[in-house]
Amino acid sequence: MVAFMTAQLTKTAGLRRTLRQLAAIAGTTVTESIQQPVAFLILLSAVLMTLLVPVFQFHRFSEDGRLARDSGLSCMLVFGLALAAGTAGRSVAEEIARGTAAAVIGKPVARATFLLAKWLGVLGVVALFWCGVTAATLVSERCSAHFLTRGDFTGYAADPVTLLLAFAGTGIALATAAVRHYMWRRRFGVSAFLGVMASQVLVAAVSGFYNRFGQLYPLVGEAACEGCGGGHAHGAARLVFYHPELNLRVLPVALLVLFALAVFSALATALATRLQTGAALAVCATALLFGLAGDSLWAVAPLLSVRGLAAGLLPDVQHFWLCDAIARGGQVAWRYVAEAGVYALTCCALFLTVGCAVFRERDLG
Amino acid sequence: MAMDTKNVIETRGLKKTFLDFWRRPTVEAVKSLDLTVRQGEVFGLLGPNGSGKSTTIKMLLGLLHPTGGELRVLGARPDDMRAKARIGYLPEVSHLHPFLTPRETLRYYASLFGMTRVEAAKRTEELLAMVDLAQASDRAVGRFSKGMARRVGLAQALVNAPELLVLDEPTSGLDPIGCREVKDLVRILAKTGVTVLMTSHLLADVEDVCDRVAILDGGVLRAEGKIAELLRQPDAVRFLIEGLDDEAAESLRLELEARAGRRVRQDYPAMSLETFFLQVVAKEGRARDFALAPFLARPAAGQREGGTCAEA
Q1: CA A68, CA A89: separation in Å to the nearest integer?
Q2: Which residues contact A147 (CB under 8 A, 6 or more apart)?
Q3: What angle do CA A286, A348, A306 make, to 5 degrees?
Q4: Which is it for strands B68-73 and B195-199: parallel, antiparallel or unpaired?
Q5: pLDDT digits over A26-59, tens only?
Q6: N or C: which end of chain B has fewer CB within 10 A?
Q7: What is the pLDDT of residues B35-71, one digit of tens each?
């Protein structure tokens, strides 16, 4: 009995230590990664490119919102992939080359724990990026011109106020980061990254306090949101206090993109145990291209063939790219999102298992 | 072959051959190394560049996989987590996260040993005071000088109060005061029962602190033993007499020559440059207020001042 209890306590203590190690390494990876100027530049580029879409829209055909939405989601996928591969390369490949990984593995940290923690850290950075770009995509779609018919107005109406707030928020975030760095020596990269991300979320939330004509609520419902494109029923006249004219049907689609980025983070982390950042990025980009074209390349390939093997090993990115599903008022079912999440988790587990096996045999130092 | 579990480090026929991409052998870094380090001793691993010192240390820590032979550290395999939790390691170059401050760095390493936040914070403050970095604890480590980074590296090696401390070039990049402090720290730790394995290119440092040394060359153990035994000149005797003037010294030398029937050499021993430097800095009042200051009063080994030395 005593031996059993001792064994259980040892197991519990071991588990607790492993969890602390995971949290510490992942947390440090996030801090170190978002401090890097390249991480902040990737986030800033993705946010600005998403926000600039409504500014440079010339051909309307009632597709302005869709164009902004698709652009935002595309930026999320492409820039997110670059961020995931770059962060994994820096935090795994470069730490192995520099000896920082050896200093950690020299402590009572299992190599599998180290790699899993690094993936969690990379995923944390990608998740922060995702929050910022998702908010920017929602704002960008709202700011695009929408065709409205109201008592006093018929035609296309954009939302310059929110767009201005989004750009101003980005600028304020940068200025705040600079001041914090100058006055209190706070890390500029971390402040700027988190500031830009938070500013977009804040603008998306604040935009619910006024309509696209800049009129502050409370307003009567009909005037408040007619033709807002929010995918909800517009009832009889009622008083509206807060109405975010955001297309929230984007959220499940954006979540699927996050799943894809989680899969590529796992792939990049596994590759970084042997390859440098550039090579890992190139492999991830190739996997993305083949993954997007998977349906046409090997959809009908027999299982026991080269094409069938490729289809089995490469993640099918089409499962995660459902922009068209919400094009004409459609909605992605949450059940599908959950199933895609399980698929993504399986892919991550597969890549990380291979990565651990490779990393286990690697000489460090 | 059975290994003695009382030995802290024990290797038998340890080999390491590095392989290329096609798994062909490229460099045989360590060739059949037999080494024993006992509990509580300060053991020096010496050798020229490429002799296999760092490779041996990395195998002890489970960073490199041995190609052959046996290896036990604290009675366990090098990848045993319970054994690793009792080891402190200072790498040859302080591989630290450049954007973290010393405080964050030490808390990070403390958490790797499973310490709670409170424990980690307490241990961090103790170590920051010990390595005299409390004032600079909120600056990024990447902006530190090599010596300051080395101090952070040393603190992280001690974060778990280790039973075995592995120091790879511990005084590299440190000023003479820092070197002296590290050497004193090593001696203090050894007195408390900590086993220390260190490598250094600075032979004087090794001579000052190590009980035993092993000399590697080309991956082969060339010599091993206690420093006093290895360096002893069996056919010579030295006397040290303080307060003797030149005339008395000369007459004593002649007397000794007549008695022994051999040539007697007389010289005036000088203090080491390190001792002189430390005295000058102390006089100028620029010596730092180290947390280890109480231990610095102990005279360093081999220190000789104000005496006449005669060697027969």
Answers
A1: 31
A2: A62, A155, A156, A157, A227
A3: 50
A4: unpaired
A5: 999 999 999 999 999 999 999 999 999 988 876 6
A6: N
A7: 999 999 999 999 888 889 989 999 999 999 999 999 9
- Report for A2-11, A169-178, B127-136, B273-282: range of highest mean pLDDT: A169-178
Q: Which of B212, B242, B210 is nearest to B226 (CA)?
A: B212
Q: Comparing C-alpha atoms, which of B283, B245, B296, B295 is closest to residue B266?
A: B245
DSSP state of A208: G
Assess B62–A contact: CB distance below 8 Å, yes or no.
yes
Whether A361 and chain B come into contact, CB under 8 Å, resolves to yes
Residue A342 host element (H or E): helix A334-361
pLDDT, average across residues B296-311: 42
Q: How do residues B2-26 score in pLDDT, each as one tens digit?
A: 555 578 999 999 999 998 888 899 9
Mean pLDDT, residues A183-195 taken together: 92
Count the neighbouring beta carbons within 10 Å of the beta carbon of residue A3.
Answer: 7
Q: What is the CATH number of domain B7-231?
A: 3.40.50.300
| β-strand partners of A149 | A154
Quote the pLDDT of residue B300.
Answer: 36
Question: A202: Cβ–Cβ under 8 A, 6 or more apart, which residues?
Answer: A169
Whether the CB of B91 is below 8 Å from some CB of chain A: the reply is yes
Helix (H) or strand (E) holding A286: helix A277-292
Given B64, B85, B99, which is nearest A35 (Cβ)? B99
- Whether B97 and A32 lie within 8 Å, measured CB to CB: yes
What is the residue type of A96?
Answer: I
Distance from CA of A364 to the nearest CA of B (A): 5
| Statement: the pTM of the whole predicted model exceeds 0.90 | no
Domain with CATH 3.40.50.300 in chain B: 7-231
In this prediction, what percent of chain A has a pLDDT beyond 70? 88
Report in angstroms the alpha-carbon separations of B161 from A107, B58, B88, B123, B252: 13, 20, 8, 10, 52
Q: What is the DSSP letter of A314?
A: S
**Mean pLDDT for chain A?**
88
Q: In the structure encoding, which two tokens stand for residue A363, read together?
A: 């000489």
- What ipTM was reported for this prediction? 0.81
Residue of A14, A17, A103 with shortest CB distance to B95: A103
d(CA B22, CA B66): 18
- A100 has a chain B CB within 8 A of its CB: yes
